[in-house]
Design goal:
The chain has eleven helices and eight strands. The protein has an eight-stranded parallel barrel, surrounded by five helices. Strand 7, helix 10 and strand 8 form a beta-alpha-beta unit. The radius of gyration is 17 Å and the shape is globular. It binds 2-phosphoglycolic acid. The site of 2-phosphoglycolic acid has 13 residues, from strand 8. 2-phosphoglycolic acid binds next to strand 8.
């Protein structure tokens, strides 16, 4: 199974949710699981449209609270996300790590809270330019993967780890297949060493960072990576469809 996650970030598709969903009626390849991750207020509309149009898509959130309920103004619990139709939730996106104080321990607690509610956490890891230049990428990836582990992950139906090098996000410069494969092997190695148990066998690795219709076929060839987390290009349904097609196994 491959995964294609459309991370709209704090944006909406130009033509609106309805037209966007209407354009996705041909995403029926059963080998690619497509996840639409709109901002919170548009989760229900996206869910309703996808049900109405019988789209083969999942709904995902871009963040969740580590808490189940209580006095946490502005937060949204995994339970609420599940109620809004979500089956996936992104945790620890680098934009949240950089701007919203998302530390490794918080990412750990959020992934655990999501898993306990039966959501599939998409745990983002990746190095910035200076870490890459100083040759510390492997250590950084190991640290982030290890820190995300908790036994609670065993409760999740699946787990995705997204390799998202910061220098490739929103820059138009994607990581090369060789770099993605290398990072993928470091992630697998870190999971094997520090996760153990059931979670490691049901974890898949995906790549994010300037994925586009132009590079999706080439990047799909990377053996140890099972799909993409797409930001900018996912805002246009036509581009998402092209990426989806490029990912389909060749016959
Ligand atoms: P991008 O974003 O595809 O625009 O580089 C990826 C992401 O951050 O999810």
């Amino acid at each position: 199974m491959k995964y294609l996650v459309a991370n709209w970030k704090m944006n909406l598709p130009q033509k609106g949710v309805r037209d966007y969903c209407a354009a996705l009626t041909s995403t029926s390849d059963p080998g690619v699981r497509t996840v639409l991750a709109p901002p919170f207020p548009f989760l229900v509309e996206t869910r309703d449209e996808s049900v109405r149009l019988r789209l083969h898509v999942d709904i995902g959130a871009q963040n969740c609270s580590e808490h189940a309920d209580g006095a946490h103004t502005g937060e949204v619990s995994p339970e609420m996300l599940a109620g809004a139709g979500c089956t996936f939730v992104i945790v620890g996106h680098s934009e949240r790590r950089a701007h919203e104080g998302e530390t490794d321990p918080r990412v750990n607690r959020k992934a655990a809270a999501a898993a306990m509610r039966g959501l599939i956490p998409i745990i983002c890891v990746g190095e910035d330019q200076s870490v890459r230049e100083s040759g510390e990428t492997r250590g950084k990836i190991h640290q982030q993967v290890e820190a995300a582990w908790s036994e609670a992950l065993d409760a999740a139906p699946e787990v995705l780890v997204a390799y998202e090098p910061l220098w490739a996000i929103g820059t138009g410069v994607h990581a090369t297949p060789d770099l993605i494969a290398e990072a993928g092997s470091w992630i697998s190695e870190a999971i094997e060493q520090s996760w153990g148990g059931k979670a490691s066998t049901k974890t898949k690795i995906i790549y994010g960072g300037s994925v586009s219709p132009e590079n999706a076929a080439e990047l799909s060839e990377v053996g140890n990576v099972s799909g993409f987390l797409v930001g900018g290009a996912s805002l246009e349904a036509e581009k998402l469809l092209k990426i989806h097609k490029a990912m389909a196994p060749r016959h």
